[in-house]
Amino acid sequence: MFYSNPQHHDLLSWGISTHSFNLGPTQIVFHLFTRQNPTQSQPLLPSQASLLASGFQYDRPTVLTIHSHGPGVAGNFNAHVVSAYLAVQDINVLAVDWSPGSSTYTTGLASIPQVGRVVAQFVNLLSNDFGYNTANIHIVGVGLGGHAAGIAARMINGNVPRIIATVKMLKLLSFIYVLCLGISSALPTDIILKNQDDGPRYQYADDSNGAIHLVDLWLSLGDILNVARYNPDSSNVYHLFTRANPSVSQPLVNNNAGLLTRSNYNRNRRTIVLIHGWLNSATSDFNTVLVPALLRAEDLNVIVVDWSRGANAIRYREANENTVSSGGAVARFITWLNQQSGSTLAQYHIIGHGLGGHQAGVVGRNLQRQVPYITGLDPALLGWATNFNKFHRTDGQYTEVIHTNYGMYGYIADLGHMDFYPNGGISMPGCDSNACDHARAFFYMAESITSGGFTGRQCLNYYAAVLMMCSGPRTSRMGGLIPKRGSTGVFLLETNANPPFSQG
After folding, report:
1. Where is the Lipase domain (predicted)?
2. Which of its termini does the chain have fewer beta carbons within 10 Å around, N or C?
3. Are 66 and 148 contacting, i.e. CB atoms less than 8 angstroms apart?
4. Complete domains list, the chain, with CATH
5. Could you tell me which residues are beta bridge partners of residue 304?
6. Nearest-5° Cα angle at 307, 265 to 369
7. Where are the beta strands (DSSP E) in 118-257?
8. Dist CA 68 CA 72 (whole Å)
C-alpha cells in the first residue's frame, strides 16, 4: 500500500534517505491516497512545496488517519481503513506516519503531543495557505492515535466536524468488513459501509410530487456498485430555455460544440442553472415553476440540469452519493460551456432544490467558489447532517438558503451567508403536507423573482427563527435575482396561504 523504493524497502529508511530527517517534527510523514493512487501513497511533509507537488484534491473532503503504537503506519488499521474510505467516496486520505516514535507504548505516549501539533500544523497550512475549508476535515485515530487526534483538533484554527477515536475491537471490526470488500464477488451485495445519518436506519422521505417512501440510510457495498454505474458526464442532459424558446428546450451536451452553436445560447446574457431534487427530472414542478418566472423577469439563458438517471435511484442513499458526482459533472459542463462560448463565471446564478440544493453547493465548490450567487431551496436533511458535501456558505461569493420544511425533509440549521425561514421554516400556510411545505421554497423563489417582496426580519440565530422570536434591527428581501453580497444573517418572514405569497 505505501510507497516503497526498491532500494529502500523499509518505509522509515526510505523517508530518511529522501527527506534527510532529523529527530523531530519532520519525522512525521503524511501519506496521501486518492482514487487515482489507491494503493501507492504520495509521502508529504507539512510544507507548501510538498503539497503543491502532490495530487491533493482541494475540492474534496479529507480524512486523516492516525495509527497507534506498535505496528505503525503500515499496520492493519491503515491497510483496511484507507481502502474502505476510498471505496465509499472520492476523497483525500492522509495516513499520518509517526512510526519513529511509536515503537513501544511508553515512547508512543511521550510522542502523541508532538503528533497532534504536527497534524494541526498540516491542517492549518491547508486552511491558511490554500484556502481549504476545515469543515471538510475528518480525523480518525486508533489507540494512542485517538488522543493525538483530539490534541490536533484543539489546535486547529477552525471547527473539525468529526473526530473518531477507535479502540482495538473497532479496529478488528474495521478489518472484518473491509476484508469482506475484498471478497465481495462471492458474497451478497449488502455489506454495510456507512451510516449516512445519525438517526434511525429507516426513515420516511417524500419526493416533490408528494409520494412518501421508507428509505434505508445505511450505505451498502451494493449501493457503491450501483453508484459506480452512474456516469453523470455522459448521462446528464442540459436543457436550454431562452425567450426565443421559452417552452421547448434545446438540449446541450458536454463537449458537443455543434449543439451549442445551433442553440439560442447568448454569451452576453446572465445564465441561471436549475438543479432538481430526488426522483425528479427536467419536467418536474421545480423547473416548470421557475423557468417561466425567470424568463418573465429578465432575458436570460436558463439551463435545466437533468440528472434524473442519478436522482431517480429509488434507494435514497444512492441518490445522495449521485448528488455529489453529478455536481462535479455540472461544474465540468459549465467550464466547457464558458470555454466554448466566451462566457464567464461572473454571469452565473445556480439554484437547487432538495438534493439539488446541496448539489448546487458542490457545483460552486468545484468552480473554485467563484460563482457570484448560489441559492439552496430547502436543501435535503436526510443523509446530510454530517455529510462533508452539504451546502456551505463558502461555496459561492454569495449564498442564500430558503428553509420551508426543516427537520422533516429540509435542513434545519443555517447554511448560507443569508438564511430565510418563512413562517418559522417548517409549516407553510395553505399546505397540509410536508411535500407541499418542501415545494413552497421554489414557489416563493419564483414570486420573489417576478415581483419582489418577502421582507424578512433579522434573527439572533436559527433557533430564534424557528421559534419565530425575531426582532433584530435589520430587514432584508428574500430571493430575487440580485445577490446581496456582503450581507449575512438569519431572517424570519411570514407569507400568505395563497398567491401572492408575499406580505411585502
Report:
1. 26-164, 238-501
2. C
3. yes
4. 11-179 (3.40.50.1820), 221-493 (3.40.50.1820)
5. 239, 274
6. 70
7. 137-142, 162-166, 192-195, 202-206, 212-216, 218-220, 237-242, 245-252
8. 7
